[in-house]
Structures
1.
Amino acid sequence: MTAPGRDSGTLLRGLGIGWRPELAAFIAERRELGFVEVTAEALHTHGPLPVGLDDLIERGMPVVPHGVSLGLGGTEPLQPARVAHLAAVAERVRAPLVSEHVAFVRANGLEAGHLLPVPRTREAMDVLVANVRTLSAELAAPLALEHPAALLRWPEADFGEADFLTELAERTGALLLLDLANLHADQINHGVDPHRFLDALPWERVAYIHVAGGVVRDGLYHDTHTHPVTDAVLDLLCEVADRCADQPTSTDHAVTDSGGMPAVMLERDGRYPSVRELTGELNTIATAVGRPPAATGRPLTVVSTPRTGQRTEPTRQDRPTRAAEPGEPGRPGRRDRRGGLSGPDRVEPGRDAGHDGDTAGNLRQAQGELIRALVGGGPAPVGFDPGQVESTRVALLRKRADAVARTWPALSCLPGFHARFAAFADGRPPAGAYADGVAFAHAAHSDLDREARAEQLVAALARRRLARRWLAVATDRRGGGRPLVAIRVPFLGIRVLGLDREND
């Protein structure tokens, strides 16, 4: 195994955490943290940064934008506005590194609202390579790619899991973000051997590591980010630390922690624990990788590297090869099915002479059918396990309900909210938590209490353009009792009349 970070160019150091507004005060007090990661789509390119994050940037804390909506594995062209937004956010937070996912999120005009896996095939590889190169060319910082957790698996594969990531990194020059919770999910859900995966991983390309919590439901592991990190994930982290401790540190970079151990980051996206519990979880992670809790944070060291869009050649000689896993197709070598060399100059999507017509044509159709089955009420695509498709459909509905509940807290207090929202949203493509909440509130308006109605009324008023109006009023006369009246006055904000008390 080659030492981690040998070709990574940019080395994050120590222990990090995902920055969320709910954790801002906690993170501000944790001076030993080495870096934070922030969801790129949660930041604006102009205007004030979220309170707390701005202070971290001024302190010199490395901030990594983590994208979730580009859909690098999708056959549809990358949306220029999304690419520009990610690039602008990266520059705004002075990012030393940017990360995104090996996933697709939309097809045929439908949004999944969640990261979906791509097949481990040559066609999918070509699509990913083209999209990663397009994105990398717009970024001023290196790009790291994360393999997402999945409840379903595509029926065909030309690569093993680690081999797919290896070729993707080699053909694009991108780095890798290793998510041990996602690896554990693949072990439970699809029988992937995590030890063989770690053996075959190109460690010289690993930029940093994610750990997170999850839960098993109906025999499947769900990567929730709302539960404590499991013992199984901590065991994998200890295994990685042991592997790294035995490897020499590259002389190309400044000395790294724990014999070349990549930086490790905790993801927590909801159901936030107490300060004591969260501190204990961070300390447990630090101990697992051999870093005393009192010394978990080190500054990030940035080392000169080629732009991610340029090809680099990682060292392969120390990486063991492996046989195909049970049920896995034979591992392709460096020559493809046409007998030609695979590499960065081999193909671009739509130009593979080994396939009839458009290379991405079959993949485009398959992705569209899968999304229709998951969010549009369509049948399970041919070849897919119907049980896995159904489990994924239900999980996506649950995630949508959770997102709406976070966006509309008063609405989520409706009795039986999660079940009622799932019934409402089933077969309706997601439109985002805000729009989903508005549509559901309209459908369930007769059952809403006055607080939930007021919440919707205030939002409706806020959506109005007030450029030419000094005063705006919105009224809700539905329901029993007095009508609700929302008034927006410049410099005074919004007041709701008709409740027991006024609300800002």
2.
Amino acid sequence: MTDEFEKLGTLPPAPPASSEKRARALAAAMQAFDAEEKTANRAQGKSWRQRQSSILNRIWSTNMITQHRYLAGSALATLLIVPAAAFLTFEITRGNLPASGQVALPEMADAPKVQSEPVAPKASVRHGEAKRQREEDAASPLPASKPLDYEAAPSGGAAQRMAEPPVALSPPMPAPTQSMMAEGAAPLAAAPRHVPTEPAILPPLEQGRDRFANADPNPVKSVATDPVSTFSVDVDTASYAFVRRSLMQGNLPAPDSVRVEEMINYFPYDWPRPQSAEEPFRTTVTLTPTPWNAGTRLMQVAIKGYENAPAAAPPANLVFLIDVSGSMNGADRLPLLKSAFRLLVGKLKPEDKVSIVTYAGNAGTVLEPTSARERDKILAAIDNLQPGGSTAGAEGIESAYRLARQSFIQGGVNRVMLATDGDFNVGVSSDEALKRLIERRRKDGIFLSVLGFGQGNLNDSLMQTLAQNGNGTAAYIDTLAEAQKALVEEAGSNLFPIAKDVKIQVEFNPERIAEYRLIGYETRALKREDFNNDRVDAGDIGSGHSVTAIYEITPKGSASTLNDPLRYEAPAAASTQASASDELAFVKIRYKEPDSNTSKLITTPVTEVNAVSDFAAAPQDVRFATTVAAFGQKLRGTDALEAYSYQEILEMARAARGDDPFGYRSGFLDLVRLAETLDRR
């Protein structure tokens, strides 16, 4: 083998290639290539005979835009829509759907109604696989036992939220990080911005957690079986302010929030006044026809308290007990509260004293008893209040009463002023337990005022319990104007009591009256025997206060009598001197002086002398109080006012408005108009 290689090495070199022969060979190769290209099938490529990478250049070329506009537009739309659809599919697959009940997608008119169940997404699922999975789920029937988040509406083509809770995703999605969520927000609470929301069904408004103290309207009672009516006076005004706020927000008030007596007593009336302080109040009784029932009459019992001159008002020891818990964090709560107390501080005299106790998770003294002369110090303490924490109301009440006892003024006014939304949730919090706590403290001669703030979790029921059992009053502050009314214009009547435990008892003459119905005072009803029992607590009357109670009475023999006579009723006994007279009823009032535990009695017979034959001829205040009573009953849905319209109430109010220096009665007319409009919806 080696020999063969050695022989090759001895051969002479090959002659050099001829340039002419090289040119002829290259030409022959090119000719053969061209012939093969014409006869062979193309393996790839387009008729344009251009590389595929050049297609985008061709689309965007001037020639393509001018000669193929339709193709260019379609390509552009495809470039925009396909990535967006892919992104949406990815987001849906990943689980970023809105929470149940937030967004309802529109339903196509001719599309079959398909109900789908949420599917737990997998992180590794590709877009196409996720889409196929959703289609298979939609096509397969759903188990009947699993509720749906959304259900097609019976009509209108809009989706409605079902009452059942949504099906939980399994496995659960990882919780969003803090940076992805607003503070306090639930996971997936907001709809992604790329999810279509028009048309959409908005989530229902959260039902308020307001709690109100009320009872069923008083029934019609037969004088033959129940001739005596007994109740405690009520000078609170909270219900009217809450009703006004509801109407101004475009909502008819909840029936339980309407206490007719508080609406009537919200307004000042110029009833006949007592002549001296020895006569703490004077009683006026007026009989008129009933505007909404021709077969009955109205008996209006009005009380006017003696009004002390401002200079003669005793010194005051006031403890501001202020709720600074987290529930008071709102513009209509703590900020409004602070403004309200600033108004009150400006009304105090130099000899008055102010203390401030706050409570949240626990109670603390913000300001020790301080003379009203140090106004700046008091205002600074108020301004520095900040909300936060839970609500240990019972502990705050104990601290406030303890501070009030420490700075007690003998012969003066000692009062705790509780400002809260009533949302007590730490320590003693039940109404009954707090009632017993307040009852123990009122024996110390310390009165209580309750000022309610806020809406949505207002515990009006608790505030009424505290006020009624703590020798106190209750008001609802929804605006600074209401604070001005309650704490400045009516400071004398709200701060300085002239009588406590005031009770009213009315006995009707069965010879003259067949039936009666007390309008309002459902939460103030007392037993007949409670009237003479001085241990039973009742309402208080402040300096210059007015209290009005209205009965609808049915004369004997009237066609409007609702109760049949008793079959086994005993024959009428020989008429007494009283029943034989023209007395229709007998009004008795018991009261105690602020520093006494023994009651005194005032009596007033009711005869036709007190009657007015024409309602239009009745005193203006009588007619306006009747108008407010009609409005309150209408809002509560009382059967007796079902056929009486808001327009008739409005006309009666216009005729009885009279002198209105503060605009309260004009504001009432506005509320009647609003209620009429809202009632039509």
3.
Amino acid sequence: MPLSLNRRAVLRAGAAVATAPYFGVHARADDGIWFTRTVGPFVEVETTGGRVRGGHSRGALAFKGIPYAGPVSGPNRFKAPPKVSPWTGVRDATLLGPPALQGPGTTYGEHEPAYSEDCLVLNVWTPAVNDGAKRPVMVYCHGGGFTTGSGGQRIQDGARLAATYDVVVVATNHRLGLLGYLYLGDLGGADYATSGNQGILDIIAALGWVKDNIATFGGDPGNVMVFGESGGSAKTCAIMAMPASQGLYHKAGLQSGHLLRGLPREVATETTRRVLAALDIAPKDFTRLHDVPADKLLALQLAAEKGQGPLTVPTPEWQAGHPPPRPSLAALRAAKPGGWGPVVDGTILPHDPFDPAAPAIAASIPLLIGTMRDEATFFERDHPAFFHMDATGLDAHMRRALGDDAQRVLATYRRTRPDATPVEQGIAIETAISMGNGAVAIADRKAAQAAPVYRYRNDFPSNIAIKGTDWTLRAGHATDISVTFLNTEMPDLQGDGPGLVEASNAVSGYFTSFARSGVPTAAGQPAWPRYDIKDRAVMLLNSQCQMALDPDGQERAMWQAMGV
């Protein structure tokens, strides 16, 4: 039975890194409708890198593919991004720029160019330019774990949000996977001190570009919100813990993703040693990595994502000191070589982002954080057998993943959800492991600081059918992206069920008001109190939202008692 908790939950149950294939949104942008086309009349503005020409799109102005840093190929590979290379003349900014190098079919922008190692571009959507306004700025980190995706995905196009709520929206492309997170610090010394975190440093460079340029685009560089969904949320966690980001953003939003812990140096270095062994490069000759074709590096990464290839083979030194663990919750959370994500190097990322506490340098940053009610339907959607499990099947599935911990978890969920089917109980358990527990931990730890925390659970159900089952995605992972961005007319995971427009108005209203003032409000919806560990107020987002105190509290208490 091809059930997937072992593969998917291992990669995000509070572990250091979430990898790509399980964060992708499989909705295509090739259905013949160019929703996000930029048209005339065209508009020119001056940036610190040179002059760009954008145009009109869905009620706003759009400027796409603007370079915010210089080339990161060749001698700049694995290093912090260099300053942008200025250009002369007027650069066209009506089309998307290149996404980061990644596997085929994993980005969803309209008329998006081919993947490229040199991918450091961003998009801006704004109601107006050069008007002296100080609009809140919403900088979005795309999903796709740390290995796929782009800032051009059409359902996260920022034009409608900018036009409706008078905000400025920015989305970036940044390095991913091996090229974004290979750690050479323990092999290469000071010249590679920023390696292991170059993908996050790219986003921070984009925040620097925002600080220097966004006033031209009608935005307020003193009121910037960084937010993201799924892998983008995990990237935001890393940003919050990095000293280089201080002063460049003022609010944060985490949607269905977390990064409690980064990759330990020893784990990241083991991955690097496997890369070198695969390429027959001695560790002392690691600089030869600069000469390896990028596609060859990508091939190693893609094989590992399928559980194949040399990155799955431990070095003798690693194997001697790390015997295979028995299945357990602790084993699910443990960082493992062969994947990609921010590295706790002691300098660029000084410590784990949210373990054992929220980063002190983010104490003044208000936080909006939440998850989907049924996250796990998305992760299991390609495994119809999961949706036909009986109680015996669920027992076996959980024992394979959790070992001896399964008994306590199953007993709790059967007590708290006596009327739920085994499949519904399984979805609830996997949702907690994959996303829910991490969100609770971050909210609790951030609430100990001065700035407010606002927590939500998104309950709006998608009516998209899961093939081979009688299930829909319900409130599954990634069904909220188009809802947040007011892009529900674009066919995607959100479906077209009743209340969709109302839910989108509520969610987008709460997010944009939070970006503006630090307090989420939405027309016709309840007031949203700040979160604390006494009352645990959670907004249940829907077409008509409602407040709840500590929803699923008995389950939360069980997970926390188990050290999750």
